[in-house]
UniProtKB/TrEMBL annotation, chain A:
Keyword Transferase recorded: no
UniProt-listed GO biological process terms: transcription by RNA polymerase III
Annotated InterPro entries: RNA_pol_III_Rpc31
Gene Ontology CC annotation, any one: RNA polymerase III complex
Residues covered by region (Disordered): 110-129, 137-199
Name the UniProt record assigns to this protein: DNA-directed RNA polymerase III subunit
Species, as recorded: Morus notabilis
Keywords of the record: Nucleus
Location (main, coarse): nucleus
Signal peptide: none
Family: Belongs to the eukaryotic RPC7 RNA polymerase subunit family.
UniProtKB/TrEMBL annotation, chain B:
Organism placement in taxonomy: Eukaryota, Viridiplantae, Streptophyta, Embryophyta, Tracheophyta
Family under the similarity heading: Belongs to the eukaryotic RPC3/POLR3C RNA polymerase subunit family.
Localization of this protein: Nucleus
One record GO biological process: DNA-templated transcription
UniProt name for this protein: DNA-directed RNA polymerase III subunit RPC3
Function noted in UniProt: DNA-dependent RNA polymerase catalyzes the transcription of DNA into RNA using the four ribonucleoside triphosphates as substrates. Specific core component of RNA polymerase III which synthesizes small RNAs, such as 5S rRNA and tRNAs.
Listed InterPro entries: POLR3C_WHD, RNA_pol_III_RPC82-rel_HTH, RNA_pol_III_Rpc82_C, RPC3, WH-like_DNA-bd_sf
Boundaries of every RNA polymerase III Rpc82 C -terminal domain copy: 145-331
Oligomer status and interactors: Component of the RNA polymerase III (Pol III) complex consisting of 17 subunits.
Length: 238, 564
């Protein structure tokens, strides 16, 4: 197929007295070339199918790193519970730390990162890439956690993953393990705290948008462990 | 050595498998050589966390090898730093994972294929993870057996050391550019070899499940129960380390396994040789060669081995008889095939070995010649063939004579080939040569540093080769300009390889482009696809299959020029 005529020209480059020097040519993505006879091409069906299968796998795996832009902060809509089950284009990814064997990497790559400290409840290597859920709003996630407390670390790991994926700020500055017992009991809360530490640019994923719509607020979080349940108190400082 | 389009193609592969962030880190490593974490932070402008995760992913998938070395720190003292070396070849191997899977399915069995698929999907796995991944935990024995099969055929190997220490090289490669850039490539290649050598597992351990202490870890023995009770919880008791060692001996050692790309490359190299012989000679020779190579594959030391491992006539015949195709061959026939293959018995003992390097070179030549034929026509093809056979500089008219090309046409065609970097030309030399003066009985040449060309006598121009043998003689006057042409194989091979990477990149991009154009069409469920939509869908599907099959075929040629 010819794609002539797509995107004519790239703007006139006539500056600096060079009018007429640069010839404007249409930009063609795939110029026509003389192709050989298609009968000479043997279709390797198995190879192509295997290749596609591998590609699909990687795209849904934790190995596919995406730079999530925290535009959520600017979106004032609160995600409805019914939205959660909508089949969206975003794929829920598991955490890298669940799959990787941390001792097989240089120390500088794995030190200080929460997920590496201990690997209890490591997820099975085989996961279901078909479970495409939209990324949960953090608020909803906490609700979930409260409601399903005791289901175990699986939930927490998912939450931790989201934090890792979404975090663009210098999380590593807050990754020193705290000596406080409260913090140690629940790994994920430490991560949450990192997220909400708005020392950098005050952008907090999901939260600020949901509450105030301001882009520069600092949010601190305290937590308490009461009878094994978790409750969170938020202070939003304007 | 990574060529310009090689790098682009590698980055494209990483982007489609792991995303832009990882590709950014990868590209920096490809273009700038081994870097430290700090340098990566500076060059990529990504956050440290993103870079760390990217590196973890690249290491996990065997595309990067970390190593530690000493550098002079800020205070003037030696500081230990960790650098990350990108492995260009391993990135390109990702393109041929489907071929590796096919090899294992054919040579071994489906279960082995399943295990390999897991290793390719994840880059590396522990034995425990392999068991977990198997669908039915109850058949752990079967999984173990399949894994052992893979080890025995060397399709799977231990992962290298996570961070070997490498002495800094004595040549300071980082500061020299420009004229020394060729040397830089050389240095970087040897540095890569040193790092890989330092990281590689000991030969004895590479394909062995045994621990260094010699004890074999047997999970069943450990538990005494059936494997189904060997659940996830059991392992947790012994700490985070997924240790495959004998219980209690060395919990810190974690053995990771990965696909052994070297073995797959060797397999494909053999296959290429066999196919070349089949096409060039006959089926009999191909059968004999296949039997010899199958028998000696595990004995080959390196992939690009020049000669196959020697075998005695008896062994060869024995091996030939094992294969179905070989059963009908007689001893005489086998002997004749060996002669066809160009090997005669070496010395007193009746052992034979095949010159594989020669077969590969022939295959490469055929490939390039067919490109020239296709692109530039038959005349160009004949001239090119002449030059590549001759190996020396040849003069235009001479070439035209020997290939029956018109004298007027020859320079044009040769010029075209030269412009596209298929030929090497020396003409400047002769422009200078015009300065020579003919005076009485002496001929003085300005440029005499090239031993090939000297003047002798009055108006004779004599072309000599390196051994001072006269190759050609011309009658000249001061207005004569000569053009000499030559095929410079090493440079040309690199150039052809780069063009192939370019072609591969174009093919990949075209597939993505086609699918992107018809994104909406792909989301329509099959039932709703009617009439023209169904037709369009079929066309799209065909296009994808043809383009990707072409890519797989092109990859055969890529391997021929890069890995064989």
């Amino acid at each position: 197929m010819a794609y002539r005529g797509r995107g004519r020209g790239r703007g006139f480059r006539g500056g600096g007295g060079g009018i007429g020097y640069a010839k404007q040519e249409p930009f063609v993505y795939f110029p026509d070339v003389e192709l050989p006879d298609i009968k000479g091409v043997t279709v390797e069906e198995m190879l192509v199918r295997r290749s596609q299968k591998l590609l699909n796998y990687w795209k849904a795996s934790p190995y596919y790193l995406e730079a999530t832009i925290s535009k959520k902060g600017q979106n004032a809509e609160i995600e409805k519970v019914s939205d959660r089950n909508k089949v969206g284009t975003t794929i829920k990814r598991d955490s890298l730390s669940q799959i990787l064997v941390h001792k097989s990497f240089p120390v500088e790559l794995t030190e200080g990162s929460k997920g590496w400290q201990s690997q209890p409840g490591r997820k099975r290597v085989r996961w279901n890439p078909d479970s495409e859920l939209q990324k949960l709003d953090i608020f909803e996630k906490l609700e979930q956690r409260q409601a399903q407390n005791g289901r175990g670390e699986k939930e927490k790991k998912e939450g931790e993953n989201e934090d890792e994926d979404e975090d663009e700020e210098n999380e590593e500055t807050e990754e020193e393990p705290s000596d406080d017992d409260d913090y140690n009991q629940n790994v994920d809360f430490d991560d949450d705290e990192d997220d909400f530490n708005a020392d950098v640019d005050g952008e907090v994923v999901g939260w600020v948008g949901a509450f105030k719509g301001k882009s520069s607020s600092s949010v601190t979080q305290t937590k308490a462990n009461v009878n094994g349940t978790h409750s969170i108190v938020l202070e939003i400082n304007g | 050595m990574a060529t310009p389009y090689g790098i682009k193609f590698a980055v494209h592969l990483i982007t489609s498998h792991f995303g832009n962030l990882v590709a950014n880190v990868c590209e920096n490593l490809l273009r700038k050589g081994p870097l430290t974490l700090q340098q990566l932070i500076r060059f990529t402008e990504l956050t440290p966390l993103q870079i760390k995760n990217s590196l973890l992913i690249l290491i996990q998938h065997n595309c990067v090898q970390p190593f530690s070395s000493e550098q002079i720190g800020a205070g003037g003292n030696e500081v230990k730093v960790t650098q990350y070396l990108v492995l260009f070849d391993n990135i390109l191997h990702r393109l041929r994972f489907p071929k590796f899977l096919e090899i294992v399915s054919e040579e071994l069995d489906k279960n082995c294929g399943e295990i390999l698929e897991g290793l390719l999907q994840h880059g590396r796995l522990t034995l425990e993870q392999i068991y977990e991944r198997a669908r039915d935990n109850a058949v752990q024995d079967a999984v173990r057996e399949s894994f052992q099969k893979l080890l025995n055929s060397r399709f799977v190997e231990r992962c290298p050391a996570p961070e070997p220490f490498v002495e800094p090289s004595t040549i300071k490669s980082s500061n020299k550019r420009g004229a020394k850039s060729a040397k830089l490539d050389e240095v970087s290649e040897t540095e890569e070899q040193r790092v890989l050598a330092a990281a590689a597992s000991l030969d004895t351990l590479r394909f062995s499940i045994l621990t260094p202490s010699g004890t074999e870890f047997d999970e069943d023995k450990k538990d005494g129960d059936s494997s189904s009770s060997m659940g996830v919880g059991e392992k947790r008791k012994h700490g985070a380390a997924d240790s495959d060692d004998a219980f209690g001996s060395n919990e810190n050692e974690v053995i990771l396994w990965r696909a052994n790309f070297e073995e797959f490359t060797r397999y494909l190299r053999h296959k290429a040789c066999i196919e070349n012989v089949r096409a060039r000679l006959d089926v009999g020779a191909a059968t004999v060669l296949k039997a010899m190579l199958d028998a000696t594959r595990s004995a080959e030391k390196k992939v690009k081995t020049e000669n196959s491992v020697s075998l005695s006539m008896d062994t060869i015949f024995e091996e030939v008889m094992k294969s179905e195709a070989g059963r009908s061959l007689t001893l005489d026939r086998v002997r004749a095939s060996l002669v066809q293959l160009g090997c005669s018995s070496s010395g007193t003992d009746d052992t034979y070995s095949i010159d594989l390097k020669q077969i590969i070179e022939l295959a490469q030549k055929e490939e390039v010649e067919s490109i020239v034929l296709r692109r530039y026509g038959r005349d160009a093809y004949r001239m090119f063939r002449l030059l590549s056979k001759a190996g020396l500089l040849q003069e235009t008219d001479k070439i035209a004579d020997m290939t029956f090309v018109e004298k007027k046409e020859a320079p044009k065609i040769l010029g075209k080939l030269w412009k596209d970097e298929y030929l090497h030309m020396e003409v400047e030399y002769f422009n200078l040569l015009i300065k020579f003066t003919l005076s009485s009985n002496m001929a003085i040449c300005d440029v005499v540093d090239k031993p090939r060309l000297t003047l002798s006598g009055m108006s004779d121009l004599v072309l000599m080769d390196q051994n001072k043998e006269i190759v050609n003689k011309f009658v000249v006057d001061r207005n004569t300009t000569f053009y000499l042409w030559k095929v410079n194989k090493p440079i040309l091979w690199q150039h052809v390889l780069d063009e192939m990477y370019h072609a591969a990149l174009n093919l990949s991009l075209r597939v993505i482009h086609e699918l992107d154009q018809k994104k909406e069409l792909l989301t329509i469920p099959p039932e709703k696809r009617t009439g023209p939509l169904e037709k369009e869908f079929k066309r799209l599907k065909n296009a994808k299959f043809f383009l990707e099959s072409s890519l797989m075929k092109l990859d055969d040629a890529l391997m021929l020029f890069r890995h064989f």
